[in-house]
Each structure stands twice: as structure tokens, then as C-alpha cells.
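User: Fold both of these, please.

Assistant: Here is the first one.
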Amino acid sequence: MRIALTVMLLFCTVLLGATFQVEADLEYDFEQVFDSIKFRLTVPFVGTEFVASGGFRRDNIVTPPYSDFLKNHYWYWDEGYFRYHSQNLEVDVGVKQNKVGPGEFYNLFLSEKGFSYPTARVSWIDPAKKMSVETLWAGLRTFSTEDKPAKGLVYRRLSLLFSQGLEIAYQESVLFLNRYFDPYYYFVPIPIFGIQEFWHLSAPWGVSSAQLDDNSMIGGYVVLYDDLWRAYAEVLIDDINMNRFISPESYQNPDKIAFLIGFSGRKDPVRFTVEVAGATAYTFERTHVDKPCEYVFFEGTNYPIEKNMIGYKYGENNVACTVNFEYHLSNWCFSVGWESVIFGTRTPSLPWHGGSVPNGTRWLTGEISSVNTLMAQASYRTKYLPKFNIEDVSVSGKFGVRNSQPFVGLSFSFSINM
């Protein structure tokens, strides 16, 4: 079967045409070099597209075998999936990254971090464009080891669309352990927390929470938009304190909430975007030492939080702000961006920062630090270089300062129709 599929893809590449793309990035902070090169192939295939990509990367985090010979570069895969898009239906099946939500710089439920995983994603909008739904399964670990169980995730969204330029969406996700796929979360069209509680009933099918402790989250977003601007707000609720309403005199468990507020507007040749995001303390982290249900790809590691979070890149206990200004002139784009992030203590694998459950919500607690980044970039892009049969060529250079540490960078990409 695999050989037959390979032969069919080669046939489609040669006779139906494919697009080969190269993307390269380099950054130097006057102490270390970070670079990557990625190759992507897009092949028309029986009414769909097959997308595959991978390359080499040096991030000074992962140390590969023969690191001296390879100059600390390691091979990585990025994509390998089939994509079908029509006016009302989008389907992605295979291995890829995903991001969801209205944010341009920050995504609360799912965001792209450079790690790809098995995906089955279906998004549908009704012909009248009044409603849109999306269901996505992610296989985060396909096998179990002694200390790391198999795990998967399901994300779902229901959006109501209004002709006046308004979208209101309900979102939910669940991270589950000891199984790779859960058909109940993926197919049953009732809220995920209802499915989760169904298994904890005192019934023949009941399972104790000690045996089945899935981590579910709910939230939603609102988008107001016009042809020239877009304003949006999003919230993710990991846990919320209901005692403030039911029993205000009793113990008040901490709210675990992430949020996003943003605005983007353009008036040629200028485009302006600002986003503010953050999360209270303990959001996304595990609540029991022996249950690795924190909202990360790889639990129990020293991998940087910014690359390890499944959703919001900075995890818990922080606030972040990004402001970006772009000026377009013919094939040129000049941009200036500023980001400021303030962190408190962040311990995804250590419940309650190593202490007991606090009374009341906490935010920006513990050891406080910050990162401030100012960056300027100039890019040139052209659609065609017919002399070399090359399309969509982009070259850009950047320079900036990150907490008084300067850095420079260069990137380029191009495509070839085969």
C-alpha cells in the first residue's frame, strides 16, 4: 500500500505539477548562531493536496548525535498531510502543526511551536455563512513509556456568524492520558465537560477520577471586523471559582484563566496591530504530582516553556503585549515591532508552585522577571523571476535588541513549479 501511494504521488508530481519551496532563516545574537532550512513539497493528488516538509535546524537546545560534525544541526520533520479545501469544507489529515483562535501573535488553545503531530481536522461553514464548526484531534504521544503515558487532545469550536461583521465562538479542548484517541470526545456533539463527567457517574460504565483524570478547558472569542480593521477578545478557562457565587464565605479556589485582547487595522500603505495576552498563576499546570496532565507537549523536561506549551506560548502567570507597525511600498515592507512580557513563577510540572492550594486567584506571583524585545525588519517580495522559473521570492533582514542583547537576522524563501 505504501509503495502504491508513493508511486501515485510521483505520478502526480511529474504529470500534474507540484510546487517545491525552500525557506531559510538565520539569527545571530553575538553569542550564538540560530539557523534553519526547510524544504516543502506540495503535490496535487486526487482532488486534494499532499504537503510534506522537513529540514535541518540549529536551535542550541537540542544536541544531535555527531554534533561536532553537524555543527549542532539536527534533522526535523514538519508536515506530511493531505489537505482538502472547498467553499464550505476544509479537511486536514496527517502530520502537521495547528493554530486556532483570532490572535495573530498569541493563540490560547493551540499554537504553532515547531513540533508537528498526527492530526485529523475538519472545519465546515454552512452555505448561508451563519454558522461554522471545527473539530480537531491531535495525537501528542503515540506510545507509552515507563514514566510518560500515551496522550492525545481534542479541540472543538462552534461559531455564529453575523452579516454585520460579528463572529461569536465557543471553544473547548481536552487533554487525555493513557490513550491515543478518544472517539467520544471527537464524535459526540455535546460539550466536552459533559462527556468527561459521564464517565464519573455511579454506573456500570463509571470510572473513578483517580483512574481517569482528563484535563478539559472551555472558552470562546468575539471578533468585530470590517474591510479595514478587526477587534477581538478571547478567553480560556482552565478552572474557575464557582464558590464566589455558591458559597462566598467558604474557601475560594484560584481562577485559572488565560485571555487575549487585540486590534488590527490598515489604511494603505500602513498596517497596525496590537495584542495583549496573559494567564493567571497555575493555568495549564498539572494539579497532582503523579498525573502528568499539564498542557504541554513534553512533560517533565527542561525544554523551554515558549516551545513546549500546546497553546498560549508563555504558559501561566504572565502578561504579554505586542505592538507591530508595517509600511508597504511596492514590493517592499518595512516593519517595527515591540514585545514586552512580564513573568512570575512558572512550573507546569509542579502543582501550585510546590506549595499547597492557595485561597483565591493569584497573578504575577513568585519571582518576577521580564523580557523586552524591539525589532526592525525590511522585506522584499516578488511573485515571479521568469528567467529562473522561480516564483514567490522573499528576502528579509532584521535587527533588534532583546533585554539589552542585540541580534541580527536574515531569511529568504522561494518556490519552483515543477
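And the second sequence with its predicted structure:
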Amino acid sequence: MGDDKENDFWKSSSDDDFWKKPVADDGWLKGDSDKSSDNFWNTDSSADYSGLSKEFFEDEKPRKDPYYEKERIKQENIQLQNPSEEFRTVNPYIESHVHHDSGWVMEQHKQEKVTYAGEEKEKRIHVRTIICLVSILVAVLSIATAVILSKMVKERALDAARNLDYRQEEVSNSFMMYGNNKVTLENQAYTIVTKESFRGFPEGLKLIAVYVQVESDQYIRDSYAMRDIYIGFEENGANSYKKPARKELVTPYVYGYGFQDEQILSTYGIGNGSDHSGYCFFFVPEDTDRIILYAEQKKTEDKIQVIDTLYIKEMKVLPEDEGLTEELVEREGY
């Protein structure tokens, strides 16, 4: 028992000087006064951490987070493709190399596109210019050729007219044209319309009709009777000439009298293998009382048609007569 009492820690240490020393005064806890700055427990809240980068505080925890790491890599890739001003400031390599190089490439690409577009535009302009010049040249040559040919034809026609040698034949009531058309005329022409009988009729004129019959049983090319006809009359002491009036000019005046389309003869000729009868209408001065009918028969020389025979028939112009006009309308032809 005596030995146990001597070895008891709590009892044997009650008089030990170690337990009597105050903790606050113990140097091993506080450390030496000259080494207090290195003491782990001595934390200075006013320490300067400005030299440390922002990533020192922010990257520790996110680097352990896979999702954050994935997002960070994604954002870095976006920044590399299109670096923002803030990222270029943080990363001087992007600022000094990547950004400028990519800008230079983009600018170079733009210049190449502009140059290519300019070359294409210039090429198109050249092609259009060539096409325009060729078209103008062709047009000029065509016009020049047409003018030259027209002058040649005109000169030949003038030569033919100077050397024209045709016969004139005064005919009675019947004569042959082109050998296949028997033409029958009368000794008089008929006044159909005047300003007294038709309101609004042209002042100083009257409309007369010449009756024509043609019998033909043979077709010969370009051998139509009464195709080239006209009349001559005296007007103001001089000779004047008129061709037959076209159907569209005559019908407004003669329809009211009962004339039909088939009674108005064509100005392109009749006969030549078929029989025709009807009237040729002429606008003449209102005081005309005598006319001369001319019918040309032509032939072709050196590809130009010239007069071969000129048939002439003098006619008296009868005054307007309503009863006579009705008889003309009812006259039966072929």
C-alpha cells in the first residue's frame, strides 16, 4: 500500500510545481516575444493579400467541382473564339497574339472578298460592254446594208422608169388583162353620197362608184385584174389622181343605202380564176363630172415590176339619184 500511494499520479503530483504555474504566463503556448509573428495562432487580420490572384481564392473549391470545371472550360473556349475585353485584359497572350492575328485574318479575308467582288464586277462590266458593242455593230451593219440595198433597188426602179416603154390602150366596155381576165366596164360612174344626203360627210367631197365585172377561169400567179387601178380628174385646173377607197372607209357611208360587203370590191385585185362583180368607190371633189379610169397591167423585169400595158376608160359621173342608187344595190352580179 505504501508503494501504491507513492506511485499515485494525482496524489503524488499535487505538490508538483508544474500544476501551479499559470497557463497564460507559460512561454511554450505563447512563444517568445521576438517570434510572435511566426506563431500559428497569431493571425493578423490586417495582412495584405493583394498580391494574390483572384483565382487563389475562387479556384480552389470549383476545381474540385466537375460541373464547374466543365462550365469553366466551355467559357474559356467561347472566350478563345470571341475574346471579350475583360478576358483579353486578364490574358495578355490573347490580347497580343490571338486577337490581333484573328483580326488580321478577318481583315485580310474581307480585303480578298472585296478584291474578288471587284474583279467579278469588272469582269461582268467587260462582258456587258463587249456584248453591247457587238450588238451596236450588228445593228449598224444591218442598217447600212438595208440602206445600200434600198438605194440599189431605187436606182434600178428609176432606171426602169426612165427606160419605161409601155403601150396605152383606150378600151371600150370589155378588154382582157393578163390573158385570163375578161373585164367589163360601163360608160358612167354613179354618185352615191354627198353632204346633202349624209350628215357629217366631209365638206367639199362626194363618194362615187364604178361598176366592174370580171370573168376568169384560169389562175396565173400574180395575174389579178383591177389590182393596180386609179382614176384621174381635173381639180383646180390641174390633173389629180385617186386610188380606190378601202372598205373600212367606205362601209360607214354605204351600209345605210343597202350595199353589202361582197359588193365592195377588194383593192388587192379580183378575177384570176374566179368571177367577181361589184363596185370600186372613190372620194372625189363634189364638182367632178368626168373621170378617166386607168388600169395597169405589169410585168417583171430584173426582179422589178414595170408597166406593160395601161388601159384607159373615160367615164361620165352621174349626179346623185336615190332611185338609181336603189337599182345599183339590187343589181345582181356573178
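The two ends are 180 Å apart (CA to CA).
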